[in-house]
Amino acid sequence: MSYQPETLLVDIQDRIATVTINRAEKLNAINSRVLDDLRQVFEALHEDDSVGGVVVTGTGTRAFAAGADIAELNNLRIKSGERASAKGQAVMSLIESTGKPVIAAIEGYALGGGCELALACHLRVASRTARLGLPELGLGLMPGYGGTQRLPRLIGKGRALEMILDGNPVDAERALDMGLVNKVVEEGKAVRTSREWLQLIMKKAPIAIRLAIQSVHAAYPNRAQGFQDEARLFGQLCGTDDAREGTAAFLEKRKPGFHNR
Ligand code: COA
Could you give all domains of the chain from N- to C-terminal order, each with its CATH number? Predict the structure, then answer.
């Protein structure tokens, strides 16, 4: 691959690309640069016939990705918030429509935007230490990378609202029970299991894999409006004092004080 991403490691072996978010010091939080790098890498992988499948993961065993970068979220206002959400959504949709199977290999936290990245992948393998959640409401925000659209489709509206409103991460066994992840493996084994699973899947004809994924997505029509609504509402929240307070409180390591309305 000619493109050299700043925030990702890309390793291609046996026709499988492993894309690793490499910001361990920030628990692999997804900043704007990570989104740009993911876009460039997935555009290249889409075109690359020598790659038949992709694993997405994070450096280390502490986190797959602990969310969108809260320092960046703190600076957003209504319009910039809507644009940031639309940008994240576009990258997640690109991953979802890559045309080859993409598996999220989850060790540790997959929170907020990190959970939404996992949701955009076709399959999810979690280690026993994995914790998946959407804690954005605790920041005065809401999921903005397609999570309000993909989560209810995957696990049903009731459970999606449970995760979004209560914000408590679920452990790997509960995630398996809910259908939020497909397999649970021992700590440190998520990438290896994902690669082995891809090797089995990739024995099928690539064109059949691609068209089957496309056909499954066709079962969920009229998606555009939901994504647009999510971006607009996310932007609206970015314009509130509560979003500023919630994100500042996280960065200052204190509890937020929200308005009572
Ligand atoms: N954005 C930016 N920085 C983040 C981050 C995020 N989403 N998640 C973690 N970090 C940073 C922390 O600020 C800290 O940086 P510092 O060492 O410069 O202070 C570093 O990563 C380690 O995180 P820390 O909170 O100290 O680790 P912990 O083990 O005490 O807690 C979590 C781990 C995942 C529970 C906690 O980091 C967390 O709640 N993160 C935010 C989750 C979230 O709300 N995500 C949704 C955003 S869309």
Answer: 8-206 (3.90.226.10)
